[in-house]
Amino acid sequence: MTADLSTTEPRSCSGGPCASSGPTFEMAGPEPCGPTPPVPTQSPPSETPGVRLWPFVLGWLDTPVGRVPRVDTALGREDVLGGWRVRCGISRYGYRVAPGLYAVGVPMVESPVLVTANYKLTFDSLRKELRGIDAWLLVLDTRGINVWCAAGKGTFGTEEVVRRVQAAGLDRLVSHRTLILPQLGAPGVAAHDVRKGCGFSVVYGPVRASDLRRFFADGAVATPEMRRVTFTLWERLVLVPVEVANLGRPTLWIVPLLLLLGGIGPHFLSLSGIVRRGGGAVVAYVVAATVGSIVTPILLPWLPGRAFTVKGAIVGAVAAVLGILGFWSHLGWADRFALVPAVAVGASYCAMLFTGSTTFTSPSGVEREMRRALPYQLLGLGVAALIWVGSRFAGGGA
Question: Which domains does the chain possess?
């Protein structure tokens, strides 16, 4: 549900009796003002002035705290397409719902209150698992960020929970004093401060929304299995499109730069060098991006080392060696020597970017790894560029 305030446009018929400079009202008469307008479609009975409804809003519930939107538990076509769109990195930061109180099913005073983020992908993941369950959803304003990241950034935090509980008037809506928060939101919330601030106790639910039905069946108790954070092959694969999409903008300047560097030589700029050497460098860049953003996440649990930069560098170096062996006769000595550090560094950097999407690291761990790895990556890239470009002047290039 989002606010969609609009104003009434003035209508004027030049020289006619109904000319007006302000809002107008339709008047009966034999001579209409202008052409007959088309018959508008009927507005849904639940629509309110100044508010545009999301398609997932089924209607409204009248409660002691006001009208509460009731949401569907089935994802529609727009929800599915929107989910895949943001997984491809398109409009990710604008994919959010309005914070506040929502209802699933027909909740009563004893129904549970589930707290979540206003990132729509998170919101959808929760509501689609609540079919047949009557519950209240308290959506926090996490600036359109998922629960785990928002907990690390502080937007899924104690103050926001207390603020939303008070703004929604939950103490007048439900007879209990319990909030069910996602376990991944725990780093940002101090349960004792929430109780002190609004009088509600915090119970942490399972990691995965798909376990909620069993969680409620067991008396709101999470088993050790529900508490375990996983990062399966499928969970890694669904993140790959975002990582690939993030390379879009850098690629726009990296490709021209590689083509230009490929053409540099004793005679300043060579067209054949742009096509042959520059084109080869672009292929190497694509290989580095592929093994760093796709192959490394797939092989993540089986690659040696803890640092993602090391894992990516290993896969990149192996890919470079295989490329050298496969195209040995087409490469000069400088190309062979430059290819290994160049692809290894590129893959290492792309793998490092994946750390922010995983359950293997914390925000502080990501920052620490980046500080340590970037100097070595820049050094390796500089060595590769020096060998590759310098060979043209030394006569060692292919």
Answer: 51-229 (3.40.50.11600), 235-394 (no CATH)
